[in-house]
Amino acid sequence: MAKFNVLRRPVTHEGGVALKRGVKHELFLLAVANMVGERSFYETAEQRDDRFTQLVRTATVEDPEWTARLLGWLRGTANMRSASIVGAAEFAHARTEPGLTRQVVNSVLQRADEPGEFLSYWLARHGRAIPKPVRRGIGDAVRRLYDERSLLKWDSEARGVRMGDVLNLTHPKPAENWQGALFTHALDRRYGNVAEIPTNLPVVKAREELLAWPVERRRELFAGDAVAVLKGAGMTWEAVAGWLQGPLTAEVWTALIPTMGYMALLRNLRNFDQAGVPDDVAATVAAKLADPEQVARSRQLPMRFLSAYRAAPSLRWAWALERALDASLANVPSLPGRTLVLVDRSGSMFYSKVSRNSDLTRADAAAVFGTAIARRAAKAELVQFGSTAARVALRSGESVLPVVQKRFSDLGGTDTVGALRKFYRGHDRVVIVTDEQHNGRTLPTAVVPAGVPVYTWNLAGYEFGHTEGRFTFGGLSDAAFGMVPLMEAGGRDIWPF
Question: Where is the TROVE domain (predicted)?
Fold first, then answer.
């Protein structure tokens, strides 16, 4: 009898029977769930990041076109910033053939601080030798992203790689004369050589003049037309807080709110309440937050609205945040027939935060997505499961937020098989929102007849999963939900990009 040369079947981290995924599926699931540098219940941050980079390199060699499309979609539609930047850097490092690298690097850099983020990662990981396609890709992004306001917002001594460093390392050609002046000014700022600000940089000049005001006179600005002055100087709320060197009062917030971006408004709802911002001003904020077009343009992950709701549970924001969360889940399809939705509420789902800077867990994300699927379906049964399983009441027309806040529990272990055996009753499809780390000796989908679609929405991206011969998606946004109707129409290897 063999002692060592035996076949070892893959198992989940809980010891349950598992499935080993192919490179593309494993990379896709990890990419859409991977907040770089952050651990999960079963993997350290280093283990997850190493697995991610190795998967990107392998996929780049095996199918560079597919990997290029994934990375562009990851930063754009899925809005995963750090993972796409790391992925593009590893794509460029693994790519030995000409073509694609410049386009991939440019596609993932969509905010003015990201060329510096990319170079910080590259220099730490791969050294100062920067291939020409990488430099050109960064240069393309710099011409598109660097303007006066982005310089004032993102260039500071707190950053290891400043805008001047990016320009020095990549040598992009300015798109217009004003941008040439901006590049020169950024280099002067970096090396402490700023003399006179050029006349074709009026926003930078206005900021310099505002900074020259004596501290004791700065609050006088808010007795006049502060909105126009602040806008003309590119003053964000963070910049104003530092400039005033004191609290932001209702008067200050009232002047700031008209020019604040969507995410800044969302982050400051509690601050507005604490400062006593008037109801008429708050109403304009709520209207902007609830506007579906503004939600789509902001590209906020659905979880941010739950986080804002918990941080500022005031009644004047509740309706707007409910509307905004619903709008952020626009890609969730309306499924016909009967749908069984299982939401994982096991311990591992509560341990892992969706990001280092968030109080929300993967259990919260599962509740949001599971409720959204059930709410949109023609006829759905919503179930939470762990060591035990129970139905979650869902009333017609009810919003996602109150359901998530009041009707889900912590249910211990991960008995996916038990939940399916208890609640599957001839449904047309099954959707399981989970980290897939079940503890059973049977693949969970074996409980469901072979002809019934089972969709697993994986929120963690672990190497081994619980499904075989079925469909697995993942992530912290709704970006891939549109694949479900395509799968039911007959597709299998259909990607959302």
Answer: 10-337
User: Within 13 Å of residue 440, how many CA atoms lie on the same side as its CB?
Assistant: 22
Domain encompassing residue 376: 338-488
- Give how many domains the chain has, as a whole number: 2
Top-confidence range, 35-44, 70-79, 86-95: 86-95
Q: Which residues 6+ apart lie within 8 Å of 386 measured at CB?
A: 344, 345, 346, 347, 410, 411, 412, 413, 414, 415
Distances (CA, A) of 109 to 88, 113, 146: 9, 9, 11
What value does the mean pLDDT of the chain take?
86
Tell me if 291 is assigned to some domain: no
In a domain, 166, yes or no: yes
The Cα diameter of the chain in Å comes to: 89
Check: CB of residue 154 under 8 Å from CB of residue 146: no
% of the chain surpassing 70 pLDDT: 84
Q: How confident is the model at residue 107 (pLDDT cuts 50, 70, 90)?
A: very high
- Alpha helices by DSSP H, listed for 201-278, are 202-211, 226-232, 237-244, 250-256, 262-267, 269-275
Contact 454, 445 (CB under 8 A): yes
Which CATH number goes with the domain that contains 447? 3.40.50.410
Give the HSE-up count for residue 212: Cα atoms under 13 Å, Cβ half-sphere: 6
Token duo for residue 125: 């990981």
SS percent in the chain: helix, strand, coil, step 5: 55, 10, 40
CA atoms within 13 A on the CB side of 276: 4
How far apart, in Å, are the Cα atoms of 31 and each of 24, 320, 364, 470, 473? 10, 30, 19, 20, 11
pLDDT (average), residues 305-322: 91
Q: Is the pLDDT reported for residue 192 higher than 90?
A: no
Single out the residue of 434, 310, 427 nearest to residue 367, CA to CA.
Answer: 434
| Boundary residue ending a domain (200, 219, 246) | 200
DSSP β-ladder status, 454-458 and 19-20: unpaired
Task: Tell me how far the alpha carbon of residue 294 is from its chain's centroid.
Answer: 17
Tokens of 265: 């408004």
Which of these, 19, 25, 122, lies nearest to 480 by C-alpha position? 25
Q: Amino acid letter at 286?
A: A
